[in-house]
GNAT family N-acetyltransferase
Amino acid sequence: MTTTTDMTAAGTGTGLATGPDTYAAADPSTDLSGAAPEGTGFRWSARPVTAADHAAVLDLFTEPDFYFRTHRPDTRPQWEVLSLLDEDTRLLSADGRPVGLYALEVSGGEHACHFFLHLRLTARLRPDAWASAYRELIRALRWQREVVRLAVVVGEFDDRGLTAARLAGFAEEGVLAGNIVHDGHRRGSVFLSRIWEPTS
């Protein structure tokens, strides 16, 4: 049994977790594509990755487009996949089932309220469910701290990632052309962000 971190946004209804709750280890191969028709019916939760989660995490990286801190997830050896996880990496679950990873980094100084988000979910979830995860994560982050700018970077070739980010309200800022080799071709990175007015 593992304990989730309480990340519910105050006064906003559902959050990433309404815990602290506990969930039994879930089967990461469970098909989630039809579990929430509108993508918003999931109960999202997040917690630090532990050694007990490594099997579920490694299963996620067998998907050829699980682009969490790498553009070639299914070619990485186990040790290299695990090296992508740090103390800020969180396991994201939908209804208690592991479905993805995220990590938040401070960008431009701790007091600038600018952050960079790494987020990847399983391909078994539809884009509207991805957008729901983005929205719940943003809601929880903004409850915990002030956020002025939240940025993500998505490969030009990553249709699923681009669709989800745009559905979640991220606006394109620009493209860094040709900085990634993907399937033998040079492709770019798309920079997207959401921006809020400072509250102080």
Observations:
- The chain has one domain: 2-195.
- Helices lie at 54-60, 78-83, 127-144, 159-167.
